[in-house]
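Internal ticket #5521
Category: modeling
Description: The requester needs a full-assembly model to guide mutagenesis choices. All entity lines are attached below as received. Residue total reported by intake: 802.
Assigned to: D.W.
Attached entities:
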Amino acid sequence: MKKISGSVTAPRGFLAQGVCADLKKSDKKDIALIYSEVPCTAAGTFTTNVVRASCVDITRQHLANGRAQAIVVNSGNANACTGEQGWNDTLQMAQITAQSLDLDPHDVVVASTGVIGVNMCMEKIEKGIRQAAANLSPEDGHKAAQAIMTTDLVSKEIAVEIELQGKTVRIGAIAKGSGMIHPNMATMLAFFTTDACLDNICLEKAFKQAVNQSFNMISVDRDTSTNDMAVILANGLAGNPVINDVNSDDYKLFQEALQTVAVTLAKMIARDGEGATCMIEVQVKGASTQENARQIARSITGSNLTKAAVFGKDANWGRILAAAGYSGVEFDPQRVDIYLGEEKMAENGMGLAFDEERARRELEKDPVVITVDLKSGSQSAVAWGCDLSYDYVKINASYRS
Amino acid sequence: MKKISGSVTAPRGFLAQGVCADLKKSDKKDIALIYSEVPCTAAGTFTTNVVRASCVDITRQHLANGRAQAIVVNSGNANACTGEQGWNDTLQMAQITAQSLDLDPHDVVVASTGVIGVNMCMEKIEKGIRQAAANLSPEDGHKAAQAIMTTDLVSKEIAVEIELQGKTVRIGAIAKGSGMIHPNMATMLAFFTTDACLDNICLEKAFKQAVNQSFNMISVDRDTSTNDMAVILANGLAGNPVINDVNSDDYKLFQEALQTVAVTLAKMIARDGEGATCMIEVQVKGASTQENARQIARSITGSNLTKAAVFGKDANWGRILAAAGYSGVEFDPQRVDIYLGEEKMAENGMGLAFDEERARRELEKDPVVITVDLKSGSQSAVAWGCDLSYDYVKINASYRS
């Protein structure tokens, strides 16, 4: 697998654009469009929040047949909690996009992100979509990545290349997410494109697993949002023999590459967590089940006290163990070892006399790596988060204004 | 019911003291002792964390027979994650206390709060306990309240008086808790005394319900601790006819008074949340079950985004609805009304055109009252929390050092 430049327009046959439709107070880009020249196999995963934006429900319906050809996204307005008008506005976004690109509206994926509870200005949206459609380019994946940002400090994109049966297959992706990030999709948007040829069953399985090991393992603030989604379009233009067996080598190679792309983006999101000064990587080992390892890892990345201690460069391993303890998983605290980077802080649930200076140096790294060994099995998991700083509070105390 | 002055020493026959044993870096009090002149009926509730301090397990054992006569507490060291030595140190605290007061060690309740993972200096502890025991006084409940504080800014105490069958019955209590506060007991200690005469079944039921509607409904940071406990001692010296029927009027009067005391202390804890500038009270109405109402109320008080918005005086009701949505409770978002104080912000899941200035005034009150009406039943619940400020981060970035 090789990292290549570009993102969603790196795979063959994909065009994109990002424009400014004045939905935000600033003059930043706020409408993104991604388009494949040919119909695609498609799959998606969505927020688990009971309160969902209409784009989540409508996109889920549109993807029910496993195909799509375009993705339209607006930032600046989540179009959530906006009732019937919000629902109609989402349908209209699909219709305008379909009309501009000569598609069936059901082949359009719609996503929104931004403030909750305010109706959208459809005049601006329509103008923006038409402008993006008229300027689609195989070079402008980066502009699409910029157009989906909200409080993100950096745009997030990546592309990779693998070889399958002598054919070059590419995967590209963009993502956004900074606050309101928590396992199970939270104001997190990610859009993947690939020119790989594979059937729906293989695409869905590969994508679901990739999302589960990446976006579902990051946490910024435990707030799960109304609008999250991750979607992948596969247009088959690489010309590789169709991947239709989840036990095949080609499937494994593709899934591995897809998961690497997803994990890379997920880590970018964690690192760019609102107000974050560093990323935190939590490795849980020696668990009896993988689910237990996942749950403990996410409980630690979600602990305000642990996050604040990392921000303060305070080697407070007791908070790490306490966060594992309230994860809901049963385990024997008296077997647990805890490491901060290379430094062993606790053994068998008890503190060791560690070197404060070396512990501090581990806390000055980015990422800060915390390892928890339960010594009760062979299963493991990794989760990513970030520290809790003054700036998180600052950003979220005045988001709407 | 009448509020009276004092706290744990207000009921007849209770003595207390708080002393400084140099367990903290500052010269603040750190050993509290509460003693009843006669044996008491006793009950307790404890943290649900898998990682528990030895005092939690040992006190649970001591209360298994439903009786106790003294409570010893140290602050400055949680004696958690301290292995066998920690266990032995807790046993020794009970023994020293028992010896000083001529009791059986099993009649002593032991509690600790402070830093995790550091062994205690038993020499200092012993000296402190003996000093407190030698100076027990019916006037010094206040000193005990001070001695159990950690990052608390104010000591928390209350006493009330009710009349049962012509006899005056008193209930007094002290509590501590500031950070690491979350439903199901989290570095939260509360000690109740009463001179009421009642049997174990009635005491346990009344206390469990009071804790459930008070301490289990507050959240500062969703971090559940290793050391929480709430304990009540009832010595019967009021001379009221024994309460032995949970359906009697006397039981109801006593339970109501006990619950009022517990709710008052719980609100004091929420208001004194680390870094808090105001208390948040969340009222959930119209739920189909009380458990649903409780879960939604606690999800909102636990939302970092909601807490930061309240700190920033930003009427971001969308975050409130989103936090309800990820509570785990199924409900119809399109029926939900949301109020900020008197101001209706959203109706049927949609934003209303509200007066920003009036909303801001509601956010400047203390407590800030958020009401969520699900309009799907008749059950309700109230939860308390606080806003998320820069100071929360500051306090927790440097707690250990």
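Resolution: model delivered.
Comment from assignee: DSSP finds eleven helices and 16 strands in chain B.
Ticket closed.
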